[in-house]
């Protein structure tokens, strides 16, 4: 029997530094209601969807910094989003900054959760591939201090059963790394949910930054195709506190094709009726890992790690 998931990407425009959680949650609920009205049973919000992208600033005051993190999920200000999801019977993915008491200390993670249609959290992921720097960089108009404000995630890349399929999560820079998708692909993932906050000046090199939009889609389309999975990528975008951020939220098929894309740089809902069995066909043919993948070849490379390749013929000494 064909399995469909009606999925929505709920792109968000800028969140001002002055916006309260209550105001932001009201925006999320409005997007959730629109997604539901368009038939969605799952809506994907962006990375750090509850606040402005605070890693763009050096914040030395700990009290000021911790106001951007959530100590509980749901908390007093986010409970309304969970309640609305339960009322509407729609699930959601949400990215946020997490403050967790673990190992006898407070730890900070860039986190996402997957919530089912009852408003119950069924999965949590913590960002593994943290971009940017731990110290401010001279000459930058906006900093990118994720390495300063977050620890590397300690969850790995698990998958969860939900919405009639196998669901996975990642965040922003994770999308650029092939192992993100492959680890989930080896677990049979059928839909990868990811949110991003990507400034156009993130590398500081004009020739690379000019290709930000291209690289954004390239990484998600390649990850989708090579692992036979749907990918739902949702942006927080527009000019946020002076920083221009990438939009073009997309829903990508296991074929690698973009089937829906946002056209604005503000709050916008896009949807797709995702046939999970498209991925199954790819996994039974081109990307049948059991038949065609050769893990022994990777072991050989790992064993030779650090070894230099043999010299070219004209580099061999004849003396």
UniProtKB/TrEMBL annotation:
<keyword id="KW-0378">Hydrolase</keyword>
<dbReference type="InterPro" id="IPR036526">
    <property type="entry name" value="C-N_Hydrolase_sf"/>
</dbReference>
<protein>
    <submittedName>
        <fullName>N-carbamoyl-D-amino-acid hydrolase</fullName>
    </submittedName>
</protein>
<dbReference type="InterPro" id="IPR003010">
    <property type="entry name" value="C-N_Hydrolase"/>
</dbReference>
<dbReference type="Pfam" id="PF00795">
    <property type="entry name" value="CN_hydrolase"/>
</dbReference>
<keyword id="KW-0614">Plasmid</keyword>
<dbReference type="InterPro" id="IPR050345">
    <property type="entry name" value="Aliph_Amidase/BUP"/>
</dbReference>
<feature type="domain" description="CN hydrolase">
    <location>
        <begin position="5"/>
        <end position="278"/>
    </location>
</feature>
<dbReference type="GO" id="GO:0016811">
    <property type="term" value="F:hydrolase activity, acting on carbon-nitrogen (but not peptide) bonds, in linear amides"/>
</dbReference>
